[in-house]
Amino acid sequence: MPDVYAARADVYKYGLPRGLLANPGRICSSVLASSDAFELDGHGFETDDPLVFRIESGGTMPAPIVSGTTYRAIRVSDTIFQVAAAAAGAPIDLTTDGALVVVATPLPFDEVLEFYSRFVDGCIPAHAVPLESPYPITVTAIVAELAAHRLLLIAGQSSESMTAIELGAKAQLERFANGMIPGRDARFTASTNLAVAASTASADPRGWGAGGLVP
To answer: CA dist 110 to 8, 47, 141, Å?
Structure first.
């Protein structure tokens, strides 16, 4: 797996106050032990989709489902689904009914961090990527900030334009790659990480050239 330049903790460290990101969900119409079935009109889940559950105030979680645990959907129809403990698993035997049960898809932290790590790779010279650990603080912060904005958008808590945010990040990364933003970690700066690699590299087809990165 390619390197990921920020971790979940970095998303909160650089871009997102803890407790702000609420996972959106919908309340099931019914949860019946007699059929091991969750009813939700137009649920949209396909078999093996990851799911998490919680209850609204005054609700009851069906046993043995545990709030916050990730389960896998088993699609029965457009309105009915069951859940398994793991992908391709058998339906869990519900022993009690549920009430006011909220179902949600886990927010894709890992996928979003991977996406923006590859976004970074596309904004700096090809011969310099993937970056080696320890990663520049500038890069980690940019990946974390982009991920925070994207996750807020997915959670329905933001209406910002990701295009504008990504363009700003791209410009910042290009300045960093050209040595215009000094690394805050003395062990790892733009010059030591990128320019040295560039000195022996062939021409980058994206127009960065083969010489040092500092103009």
So the answer is: 8, 21, 16
